[in-house]
Amino acid sequence: MSPTPEIRIQDLHKSFGDNEVLRGIDLEIGQGEVVCVIGPSGSGKSTLLRCVNLLEEPTRGQVFVGGTELTDPDVDIDAARRRIGMVFQQFNLFPHLTVTENLALPQRRVLKRDKAQAARIAAENLRRVGLAEKADAYPSSLSGGQQQRVAIARALAMGPEVMLFDEPTSALDPELVGDVLAVMRMLAHEGMTMMVVTHEMSFAREVADRVVFMDGGVVVEDGTPDQVIGAPRHERTRHFLARLLDPAMAEVEEGISGQGISDRAGGKA
Ligand SMILES: Nc1ncnc2c1ncn2[C@@H]1O[C@H](COP(=O)(O)OP(=O)(O)OP(=O)(O)O)[C@@H](O)[C@H]1O
Ligand SMILES: [Mg+2]
């Protein structure tokens, strides 16, 4: 752990009405660290990511990114958010804009870059994700995997210090997952600080510095991939991993309650 973490989450709580979804999360992510967050459906993984860039307002606790407290009521939240790139399961590209225009629009609106500069930075980032030749294409002509790489390039074009990924490959056909993971692997090797919610255990094992297992709105385990995936200390972690690796078995074991995660894991693990 570096002395000043890039992301620091302290005693983070989030409730929706009576439903306390995050129940005191403490997490530090060092500069250049890649942390994969795993856990069952409903455990609060997306809510945690959304609290880190204040798409959701925490009920209690603090979030720091690059030394700035995002939860400080006086913070310039738009400026702070610009330092955080986010990639979702759905790519959310504008269908009526070309790939280049999709990348240029937020740069021009948010960063006030001029047209030429935005186009140049769009081209640079399309190259990074291996899609230079799709600059003038419309999203509908791209595969899901290509669209997700465009969405990653769009986030990168904003020059973020940290990247948050929320199940970036779970909407993709299995054969398209690899190209997206390859881009994420490249970013990790370049030293990007990344928080990745994923069920791609082989990616987590290979790329993550740490794996965090969440259940019921708390961090149950936090350690190296070898520790958390390879030798989980908690029964809840073991149970989750067993279900993920063998969904059919879990359904037999649990009847209908095994349905959620097994559908979503879809044998990709
Ligand atoms: N905007 C919201 N309003 C009300 N409840 C919400 C909202 N967002 C999330 N929740 C609730 O918070 C809980 C955690 O949801 P969250 O999406 O963070 O889980 P998750 O771990 O990401 O699950 P999944 O693996 O299915 O994506 C769920 O019970 C969900 O219904
Ligand atoms: Mg989620």
Automatic annotation (TrEMBL):
<dbReference type="InterPro" id="IPR050086">
    <property type="entry name" value="MetN_ABC_transporter-like"/>
</dbReference>
<protein>
    <submittedName>
        <fullName>Amino acid ABC transporter ATP-binding protein</fullName>
    </submittedName>
</protein>
<dbReference type="GO" id="GO:0005524">
    <property type="term" value="F:ATP binding"/>
</dbReference>
<keyword id="KW-0472">Membrane</keyword>
<keyword id="KW-0813">Transport</keyword>
<dbReference type="InterPro" id="IPR030679">
    <property type="entry name" value="ABC_ATPase_HisP-typ"/>
</dbReference>
<feature type="domain" description="ABC transporter">
    <location>
        <begin position="7"/>
        <end position="241"/>
    </location>
</feature>
<dbReference type="Pfam" id="PF00005">
    <property type="entry name" value="ABC_tran"/>
</dbReference>
<keyword id="KW-0029">Amino-acid transport</keyword>
<dbReference type="InterPro" id="IPR027417">
    <property type="entry name" value="P-loop_NTPase"/>
</dbReference>
<keyword id="KW-0067">ATP-binding</keyword>
<dbReference type="InterPro" id="IPR017871">
    <property type="entry name" value="ABC_transporter-like_CS"/>
</dbReference>
<dbReference type="InterPro" id="IPR003439">
    <property type="entry name" value="ABC_transporter-like_ATP-bd"/>
</dbReference>
<keyword id="KW-1003">Cell membrane</keyword>
<comment type="similarity">
    <text>Belongs to the ABC transporter superfamily.</text>
</comment>
<keyword id="KW-0547">Nucleotide-binding</keyword>
<dbReference type="InterPro" id="IPR003593">
    <property type="entry name" value="AAA+_ATPase"/>
</dbReference>
